[in-house]
């Protein structure tokens, strides 16, 4: 097919980028092969290197830490808030040392961290803020989209996300001082983006970099999803509300707590979870629900307890909630094609299973 472009930065890449710039109002968006790649680029752009420290929650996916470790820096883990499972903003300042260069808040489940507090701390200590908004597209904090408040925002379009293309991501650059270098890092360390725009007559090797471009096939798939982003979000929120209403009585009667969304934080229904009263109850519920055809799952094993976490990072302060609460998370099925019958069946199976296990 003559003239058809399959590599990065073609027609659909540009359409997706325009969608982000129009809907999220960031300074600029760059598509990447994954959310992990977006995080890696952000850490590189922040100038983080050997001997530096970056404050992150331990309750998160490995990419939040590996992007730091790959630059020779140390992830410093901080405890979470039990209501949102997000980093406890009150504990961040105590973790800051002369080596601290950045904070990576993670918006777990599409529910925002307390960004006012985090940005205020970062401003006073001159720290870079990299929002891990992998789960946060279409969610907001006090009217601002997740990923658009820090210096950088990192989105994921992995197949597990609300809006997906199999594998994909985006780096949202909110501080334009970083944009030119971001283009260079993304294009294997060259100024080829300027060449394609006709700004220079040839491109050359300028800086360190890698191939952080998403293919046109993935971008085309993603654009079709972005065109339906509001519809997808609306439907997922309806499923979330069905769970909330259908399980409220069960949570009052038995040792279960529902996912919470604090005031001022508009979520995107990325997940719906319950917290069981004990880890033992969660571990009994999961296989029993599986036996009944309900694919309930848990989420992250805290990074500071993993072999690599112990090797490369350290936990600052006390682990009051990270380990305890992560062991009680029970995530319920949540996907766009669910209908009211599916949700009702999950609710009914929980109403039947929980009493049988709690005696």
Tell me briefly what this model is:
The protein is α/β, with parallel strands linked by helices and 359 residues long. Helices cover 38% and strands 14% of the residues. The protein is built from twelve helices and 14 strands.
What are the SSEs and their pairings?
Blueprint: H1 11-23, E1 28-32, H2 35-45, E2 53-57, H3 63-69, E3 74-78, E4 100-103, H4 115-125, E5 128-132, E6 140-141, E7 144-145, E8 152-156, E9 169-173, H5 179-186, H6 192-196, H7 216-227, H8 229-253, E10 256-258, E11 265-266, E12 273-276, H9 279-291, H10 307-312, E13 314-315, H11 322-326, E14 329-331, H12 340-358
Parallel strand pairs: 2-3, 2-4, 3-13, 4-5, 5-8
Antiparallel strand pairs: 1-9, 6-7, 6-11, 8-9, 10-12, 12-14
Helix pairs in contact: 1-7, 2-3, 8-12, 9-12
Oligomer: single chain
Largest sheet: 8 strands, mixed
For the largest beta sheet, what order do the strands appear in spatially?
Answer: 1-9-8-5-4-2-3-13
Average residue-wise pLDDT = 95
User: Uncertain runs with pLDDT below 50, 5 residues or more?
Assistant: none
What would you note in describing this structure?
By secondary structure, this protein is an alpha/beta fold. The protein folds into two domains: 11-228, Type I PLP-dependent aspartate aminotransferase-like (Major domain) (Aspartate Aminotransferase, domain 2, 3-Layer(aba) Sandwich); 230-358, Alpha-Beta Complex (Aspartate Aminotransferase, domain 1), CATH 3.90.1150.10. Helix content is 38%, strand content 14%. The chain has helices spanning 11-23, 35-45, 63-69, 115-125, 179-186, 192-196, 216-227, 229-253, 279-291, 307-312, 322-326, 340-358, and strands at 28-32, 53-57, 74-78, 100-103, 128-132, 140-141, 144-145, 152-156, 169-173, 256-258, 265-266, 273-276, 314-315, 329-331. Strand 6 (140-141) and strand 7 (144-145) form a beta hairpin. Helix 1 (11-23) runs parallel beside helix 7, helix 8 packs parallel to helix 12 and helix 9 (279-291) crosses helix 12. The radius of gyration is 21 Å and the shape is globular.
């Amino acid at each position: 097919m003559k003239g058809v472009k399959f590599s990065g930065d073609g027609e659909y890449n540009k359409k997706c980028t325009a969608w982000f710039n129009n809907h999220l109002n960031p300074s600029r968006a760059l598509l990447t092969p994954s959310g992990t790649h977006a995080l890696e680029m952000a850490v590189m752009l922040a100038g983080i290197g050997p001997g530096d420290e970056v404050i992150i929650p331990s309750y998160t996916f490995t990419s939040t830490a590996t992007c730091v470790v790959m630059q020779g820096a140390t992830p410093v883990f901080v405890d979470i808030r039990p209501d949102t499972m997000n980093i406890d903003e009150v504990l961040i300042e105590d973790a800051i040392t002369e080596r601290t260069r950045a904070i990576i808040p993670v918006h777990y489940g599409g529910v925002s961290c307390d960004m006012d507090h985090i940005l205020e701390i970062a401003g006073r200590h001159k720290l870079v803020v990299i929002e891990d908004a992998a789960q946060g597209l279409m969610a907001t904090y006090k009217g601002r989209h997740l990923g658009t408040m820090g210096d950088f925002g990192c989105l994921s379009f992995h197949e597990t996300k609300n809006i997906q293309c199999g594998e994909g991501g985006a780096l949202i650059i909110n501080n334009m001082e970083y944009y030119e270098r971001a283009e260079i890092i993304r294009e294997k360390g060259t100024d080829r983006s300027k060449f394609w725009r006709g700004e220079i007559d040839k491109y050359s090797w300028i800086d360190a970099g890698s191939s952080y471009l998403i293919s046109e096939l993935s971008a085309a798939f993603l654009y079709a999803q972005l065109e339906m982003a509001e519809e997808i979000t609306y439907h997922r929120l309806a499923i979330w509300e069905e769970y909330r209403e259908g399980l409220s009585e069960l949570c009052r009667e038995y040792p279960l707590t529902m996912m919470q969304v604090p005031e001022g934080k508009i979520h995107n229904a990325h997940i719906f979870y319950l917290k069981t009263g004990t880890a033992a109850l969660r571990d009994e519920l999961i296989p029993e629900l599986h036996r009944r055809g309900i694919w309930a799952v848990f989420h992250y094993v805290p990074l500071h307890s993993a072999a690599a976490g112990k090797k490369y990072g350290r936990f600052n302060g006390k682990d009051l909630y990270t380990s305890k609460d992560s062991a009680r998370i029970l995530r319920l099925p949540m996907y766009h094609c669910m209908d009211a019958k599916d949700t009702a069946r999950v609710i009914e199976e929980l109403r039947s299973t929980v009493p049988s296990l709690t005696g």
